[in-house]
Design brief:
The complex is a heterodimer of chains A (375) and B (589). With 375 residues, chain A is an alpha+beta fold. Chain A has eight helices and 21 strands. Classes of the chains: A alpha+beta (375), B mainly alpha (589). The interface between A and B is large, with 43 and 36 residues.
């Protein structure tokens, strides 16, 4: 039983959405039986490549799309319920949204943009409106820009104004539709940090759509990885990275060395898998597998230990350095093992000239076993 | 037990729409805002359809079944007239060849200005606006002054050359030439719009593969917009049949009989007006136009044209040494269409008598004084301006209303996709009929009892509204479609409802575009000639009516002076249109 304090702020149950295609090449199903429950004050990131349905899901919460089936409730109130034909108009929902394009109204000043939601909701005195606008502007660190027009601001400033506009009505739930993909890398980094701090301070619930896995890991309490309209995995960033639920998740989040193989033997704490680079030993598999079963073995580049001395034991191979690339904090090695190639991370100062022979080792605890078969 | 159960179960398992808190929200919306808007759209659509179908239907009925039963005697009488087959033959020859030539010229000009570095920049944007700057009747008159065999200014100049060659505009080639000048902007607008959307990679690939400029033009660029070219051709044919000012000015004096002129002549310049023959001729015209549309539909349906998707082209093709030649073509078109006819009209308006011997020392403003002291022409200017301002505003208001209703709202779509397409089709439908057809339909339907609107503002205003609804609707939709969906969605996300979103976000952002639509309609209303000539009365003379009237009286000086006054008014409105239409709020990315 969950306590009342963690009652879900946004609850999505059995949501479906289907777009009919005119040419009849099969329908597109951007939301396929999604159930998701988001606690108050939680920061959930919907992560996936373009076309996975993450934006449609967000827009359904906003009320900008009308799903075909399922139920959505926000702060305990149902806003959509297909079985009751309930659809609450987006302007009536207790939410705010920040758009990829900022969507600031170009004919209004920054002040007017931010004052707009307050005036939409209720009649407020001039002083009240001005106080709220200035408070919101101070929150995003743009005190002196209220008389400017959006066209006069930089991308980062515009997105801060958009954030202020979303914050000004004290909405409990904020929706973010890839808000940082239009600002340059440096500003993006700043805004990310600012966003997390603000969310911790103000305590709003955030649903954030992105295709950038680094952004997702940095921001999220939990990440929902979406694949053709389904939630493939819903977990904390560490878990999604360390224990991906599927090959799809492993490939999409971070860099993965993946090898298809057949389970050779299985015991309580160890699995032996025959793959194209030889026999791989994995300890403590998450899900039990039987001998003869097709699986995928996965390990991360940073878990590959690369040394110059040949070694003995399990999960040890000898290979040659095909290529190394320096990326500041570390260097990435492409290592050929027979016909296969793996990626490894090595200390930035270590010297691995191209073509030099190396020994490669992976601890069985770092080898993850994923369901095999179709990708 | 078993008998009692079934009636109860449907109610509990499936609540009817409109029940429960959910349905309450929705039906309240449809009941208040949505319902009224939906009814409004239906009223507009029905009114437009009625104003189109009823007059044209009555006209066709009057031509074919005058006394309650099918009677082709009126048809027979007209067909047996000596001029009938001449008119049909001349019209088909002139409109057909002018449409094809205008298509080629328009396509080449559009390509030069949209796809190559030989475009004229801001001057190129004047191309589609030319017929607005210079009313077509002024262009036609200008060329009459330039190319008449006896007193034409060009002949005056050519006389100075050895062998003294002459040109004569009052011939088939001459008439077709002026038709082409008038039709080119229509081809240009249609084709340039889709050329703009070609992925430049298509052309770059062709050039990289070693194809020359012309090969790229004819093998890649133009085939890629073949759909636009086909629809442009049919637009040119339909528009060509409706053109009135060119044939009335040039054709009449060249003894070439054109259908549109013949219809107006039967109505306006014969006594008593021969309504029966006019309706028969208009029905024939209608048949031509409908054939063109049916043919277009079947041609367009035959092949599914590839959609041109992807990034729209900013990179223009380099033309190297061809650049000056290509630029020259555009400039030559502008000069021939606007500059020299305007000069000719100016000279004639200043000369005491039109003569090819130009002597600036005798120039005076006497013709302007004459024209502007005549009650008829002053009233015409007033009437046209009032109709343009008021009628234009009404048209914009109607189109904004329909366009907003067709937009996505916060609770989905007010009109289903099929309904929206139908509404759009009705708004564009009048384009399928020429102004003469609509004008004559209005006379047949509304000039007698029970309406008795003959020679009133109402009949003129309604006719303009119906005839120019396609232009009004297209331009308004363009103005509104420039407002991104994210801006309205951001308004919903800021807790604003439909009314507030439209009043505070959509309309303020659309205002520059809507003002320029208004100016466009003003110009179109003010320079309309063919329907005006038939519908205007002694109490409500309009510009087009007076221009033709002066022309028919054979007084060239006053005609030129009046045409200049009109050109000044429409040019001023066009410049306002250009200034207002500039996007004030550029979005910075």
């Amino acid at each position: 039983m969950t306590a009342t304090t963690t009652a879900p702020q946004v609850e999505i149950t059995g949501l479906h959405k289907r777009f009919k295609r005119r040419s009849g090449a099969g329908d597109v199903v951007p939301i396929d039986d999604v159930t998701l429950s988001i606690a108050a004050g939680e920061f959930v990131v919907l992560l996936g490549p373009s076309g996975c349905g993450k934006t449609t899901l967000l827009r359904s919460i906003a009320g900008l799309e009308r799903p075909d089936a399922g139920r959505i409730s926000i702060t305990g109130t149902d806003v959509f319920d297909a079985s009751r034909r309930l659809f609450l108009a987006p302007n009536k929902r207790p939410i705010s949204m920040i758009f990829q394009s900022y969507a600031l109204w170009p004919h209004m000043t920054v002040f007017q943009n931010i004052a707009y939601p307050i005036k939409s909701r209720r009649r407020a005195s001039k002083q009240e409106v001005a106080d709220s606008v200035h408070r919101a502007l101070a929150q995003v660190g743009l005190k002196d820009l209220h008389n400017q027009y959006p066209g006069q601001l930089s991308g980062g400033q515009q997105q801060r104004v958009a954030l202020a506009r979303a914050l000004v009505t004290d909405a409990k739930v904020l929706l973010f539709d890839e808000p940082l993909s239009n600002v340059d890398a440096k500003v993006r980094e700043e805004l990310r940090v600012q966003l997390v701090e603000m969310q911790r301070e103000l305590g709003f619930t955030a649903v954030y759509v992105t295709h950038d896995q680094a952004e997702a890991m940095e921001l999220a309490d939990r990440i929902a990885v979406l694949n053709s309209g389904r939630i493939e995995q819903l977990a904390a960033p560490r878990e999604v990275y360390g224990r991906p639920a599927s090959r799809y998740v492993a490939e999409f989040v971070g860099v993965a060395n993946l090898f298809e193989g057949i389970v050779a033997s299985a015991s309580d704490d160890t699995l032996e898998i025959d793959t194209t680079i030889g026999r791989l030993r994995a300890s403590a598999p998450a899900s039990p597998a039987r001998p003869g079963e097709a699986v995928v073995a996965m390990f991360r580049p940073e878990d590959v230990v690369v040394t110059a001395d040949p070694q003995q034991g399990g999960n040890v191979w000898s290979g040659t350095i095909a290529h190394s690339s320096f990326s500041g904090a570390a260097q990435t090695l492409q290592i050929d093992i027979g016909a296969e190639r793996i990626q490894a991370l090595a200390d930035k100062d270590a010297a691995f000239p191209d073509g030099s022979p190396v020994a490669v080792r992976v601890e069985p605890a770092e080898v993850h076993v994923l369901a095999g078969g179709a990708r | 037990m078993t008998v009692a159960a079934p009636p109860a179960s449907p109610r509990t398992s499936a609540p009817a729409p409109g029940e429960g808190p959910a349905g309450g929200t929705r039906s309240r919306w449809l009941g208040r805002g949505g319902g009224i808007v939906r009814i409004g759209v239906f009223v507009v659509v029905l009114a437009l359809l009625a104003l189109l179908v009823y007059p044209i239907g009555r006209m066709v009925v009057k031509a074919l079944v005058p006394d309650g039963q099918l009677d082709l005697s009126a048809f027979g009488t007209v067909v047996q007239q000596g001029w009938f087959w001449d008119t049909i033959r001349d019209t088909v020859i002139v409109v057909g060849s002018a449409a094809v030539i205008a298509l080629v010229v328009g396509a080449v000009l559009a390509w030069i200005n949209e796809r190559t570095d030989a475009g004229l920049g801001w001057l190129g944007t004047f191309m589609p606006l030319l017929p607005l700057l210079m009313p077509p009747i002024a262009t036609a008159t200008g060329w009459y002054f330039l190319g008449s065999p006896d007193a034409g200014f060009l002949n005056g100049l050519l006389k100075l050359l050895p062998g003294s060659p002459t040109i004569n505009i009052l011939t088939y080639p001459g008439l077709i030439f002026v038709y082409v000048l008038e039709l080119v902007p229509y081809a240009y607008i249609t084709i340039s719009g889709s050329l703009r959307n070609i992925d430049p990679a298509l052309e770059e690939a062709s050039r990289v593969s070693g194809a020359g400029l012309l090969k790229t033009l004819f093998r890649v660029s133009l085939p890629a917009v073949s759909q636009a070219i086909v629809s442009a051709l049919f637009l040119l044919i339909v528009t060509g049949f409706a053109i009135y000012s060119t044939p009335v000015v040039i054709g009449t004096n060249a003894n070439i009989n054109i259908l549109s002129v013949q219809i107006v002549k039967l109505m306006q310049f014969s006594y008593p007006p021969d309504l029966q023959s006019a309706t028969v001729l208009t029905t024939v015209l209608l048949a031509f136009v409908l054939c063109a549309w049916i043919l277009q539909q079947s041609v367009m349906r035959r092949g599914r044209y590839a959609m041109i998707s992807g990034r729209s082209g900013q990179s223009k093709m380099r033309t190297g040494r061809w650049r000056y030649l290509l630029r020259g073509i555009t400039i030559a078109y502008l000069v021939v269409t606007a500059v020299i006819p305007l000069i000719a009209v100016i000279i004639v308006s200043l000369q005491p008598f039109w003569t090819s011997a130009v002597d600036p020392s005798v120039f005076n403003l006497q013709h302007f004084a004459t024209v502007l002291s005549r009650r008829n022409s002053v009233t015409a200017l007033q009437t046209s301006v009032i109709l343009g301002v008021v009628g234009g505003a009404i048209a914009v208001a109607v189109c904004v209303f329909v366009a907003i209703a067709r937009r996505r709202t916060s609770y989905g779509f007010l009109l289903g996709p099929r309904m929206a397409a139908f509404v759009d089709g009705v708004m564009r439908l009048p384009a399928a009929f020429s102004h003469i057809v609509i004008g004559l339909g209005f006379i047949v339907a509304f000039s007698g009892p029970p309406f008795n609107w003959n020679g009133t503002y109402i009949i003129l205003g309604l006719c303009y509204l119906v005839a120019f609804m396609p232009q009004a609707s297209t331009t308004t939709n363009n103005a509104l479609s420039q407002i991104g969906n994210d801006l309205t969605e951001a308004s919903y996300m800021s807790h604003a409802g439909e009314l507030r979103t439209n009043l505070r976000v959509v309309l303020p952002l659309a205002i520059p575009g809507l003002l320029s639509t208004w100016a466009l309609l003003f110009v179109l209303f003010a320079s309309e000639v063919s329907a005006s000539t038939m519908l205007a009365g002694a109490k409500t003379p309009v510009i087009g009516f007076v221009l033709v009237d002066i022309w028919e009286n054979g007084t060239f000086g006053p005609m030129a002076a009046f045409a200049l006054v009109v050109t000044a008014i429409t040019s001023a409105a066009t410049v306002i249109l250009l200034l207002l239409g500039r996007q004030r709020f550029r979005r910075v990315r």
